[in-house]
């Protein structure tokens, strides 16, 4: 089910909220959690019920591994229990391996088969698997849970709570990637079980902002981005294609995150911030502290640091940076363009690190411009369906295809949108800042109503969120 659809907005969301608080009102707390967990499974099944057993199987597997780790948590911390700690590490390894193998099978099997065929000349039949919705997100969430359970930072003995932790529908499909400890205690707070008009108003406000971002801005930009990536080859149209996609991806994913945060607030649940004006970044490290923040946190805590982080010298640290972003690129999709996109960002991190050692301060506007252009160029590899398509766009953007500085009516429209949108992104307050300063009043109500009504006019062209593909 899509957030940007009439069934979700007018049926599913209000019914789940009302029943949840009615059950809590009569002190049926367990029933309320069951209701929300079952509703979330229904939400997931709306897309394709055939993948529901996969989700349930993943939950059962990780819950079992988590219980085994919790059972050994106390003894593993005992200095005399070396053997037991070793067993815990083996259990954790098996748990993580099971999750990774699931991702490899569904996301990368055909990619490997294609490349094996290309390398050997054999005709290798493809599996043609359909990527299960949200598999990357619910898998990463559970990997984080297993590691936290191994470290003694998370424990869950109640299967209903665990199912709700994984499937809570505001974050199930495309994040944010959560830690158990930052969400589940909120469901047990007494005040959280009572309807809160302040949270509800704030949640509706942020949801409407996200809805407007998605259906009005992102989906409008998508038309021009798709056309540009299909045909653009000159200097101007290639840059317009790249910039429209740069802003489409931002408004699409940040719009989803806003709607997720807004919907969760209706249940008095605060999800972590996932965007903090990333296109305001002055360097590539700053960008990754602002863009998809929960993924950056996951890559840091569960890949970069286990690889050794910065504990083994400068050269190893730089290697770990590149490897972490290579893995991050591959996580986004099975393709050489995604892998190269990750490599570019890893190399960008290395260059930023080495530049910092020179002690040279760059003017802010120049630092921003270099960062933004780098991000826009690398998004070409992220979006391009083939290597040839990416090369065509980059050839046009670099001027190698000729500097034909002409503008026709078809290019004026997206250019006008870029001119209007850019100040909004670079100078305006983001949704998190608006949420913090939000106070229910007549002006905010009118703003919310206008955004909502305009958005409803655009919902006739329903589209998926871009990160559903990852």
From TrEMBL:
Keyword Ligase: no
GO cellular component terms, A-Z: plasma membrane
Assigned protein family: Belongs to the membrane-bound acyltransferase family.
GO biological process, one term: alginic acid biosynthetic process
Full protein name: Acetyltransferase
Entry keywords, A to Z: Acyltransferase, Cell membrane, Membrane, Transferase, Transmembrane, Transmembrane helix
Primary location group: membrane
Cell compartment(s), UniProt: Cell membrane
InterPro entries recorded: Ac/AlaTfrase_AlgI/DltB, AlgI, MB_O-acyltransferase, MBOAT_fam
Bilayer topology annotation: Multi-pass membrane protein
Molecular function GO labels: acyltransferase activity
Chain segments annotated as transmembrane: 6-23, 53-69, 90-106, 126-147, 159-178, 321-344, 364-382, 403-422, 442-460
PANTHER family, per the entry: ACYLTRANSFERASE, TEICHOIC ACID D-ALANYLTRANSFERASE
């Amino acid at each position: 089910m899509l957030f940007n659809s009439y069934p979700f907005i007018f049926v599913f969301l209000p019914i789940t909220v009302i029943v949840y608080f009615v059950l809590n009102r009569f002190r049926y707390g367990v029933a309320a959690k069951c209701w929300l967990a079952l509703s979330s499974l229904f939400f997931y099944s709306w897309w394709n019920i055939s993948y529901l057993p996969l989700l349930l199987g993943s939950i059962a597997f990780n819950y079992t591994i988590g219980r085994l780790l919790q059972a050994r948590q106390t003894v593993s911390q005992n200095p005399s229990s070396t053997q037991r700690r070793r067993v815990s590490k083996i259990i954790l390894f098996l748990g993580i391996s099971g999750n990774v193998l699931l991702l490899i099978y569904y996301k990368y099997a055909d990619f490997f088969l294609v490349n094996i065929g290309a390398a050997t000349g054999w005709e290798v039949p493809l599996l043609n698997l359909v990527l299960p919705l949200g598999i990357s997100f619910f898998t990463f969430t559970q990997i984080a849970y297993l590691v936290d359970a191994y470290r003694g930072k998370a424990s869950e003995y109640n299967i209903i709570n665990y199912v709700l932790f994984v499937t809570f529908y505001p974050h199930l499909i495309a994040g944010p990637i959560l830690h158990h400890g930052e969400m589940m205690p909120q469901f047990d707070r007494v005040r959280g079980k009572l309807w809160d008009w302040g949270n509800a108003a704030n949640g509706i406000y942020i949801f409407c902002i996200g809805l407007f971002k998605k259906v009005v801005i992102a989906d409008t930009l998508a038309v021009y981005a798709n056309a540009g990536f299909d045909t653009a080859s000159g200097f101007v149209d290639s840059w317009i294609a790249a910039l429209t996609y740069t802003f489409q991806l931002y408004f699409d994913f940040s719009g989803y995150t806003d709607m997720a945060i807004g919907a969760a607030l209706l249940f008095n649940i605060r999800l972590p911030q996932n965007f903090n004006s990333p296109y305001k970044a002055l360097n590539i490290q700053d960008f990754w502290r602002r863009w998809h923040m929960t993924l950056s946190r996951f890559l840091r805590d569960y890949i970069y640091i286990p690889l050794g982080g910065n504990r083994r010298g400068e050269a190893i640290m730089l290697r770990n940076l590149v490897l972490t972003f290579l893995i991050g690129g591959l996580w986004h999709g099975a393709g050489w363009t995604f892998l190269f996109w990750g490599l570019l960002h890893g190399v960008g991190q290395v260059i930023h690190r080495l530049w910092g050692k020179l002690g040279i301060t760059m003017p802010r506007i120049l630092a921003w411009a270099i960062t933004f252009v780098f991000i826009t160029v690398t998004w070409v590899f992220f979006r391009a369906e083939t290597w040839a398509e990416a090369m065509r766009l980059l050839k046009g953007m670099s001027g190698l295809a000729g500097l034909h500085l002409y503008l026709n009516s078809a290019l004026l429209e997206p250019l006008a949108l870029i001119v209007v949108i850019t100040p909004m992104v670079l100078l305006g307050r983001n949704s998190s800042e608006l949420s913090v300063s939000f106070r229910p009043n007549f002006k905010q109500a009118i703003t919310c109503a206008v955004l909502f009504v305009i958005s409803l006019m655009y919902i006739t062209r329903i589209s998926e969120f871009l990160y559903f593909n990852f």
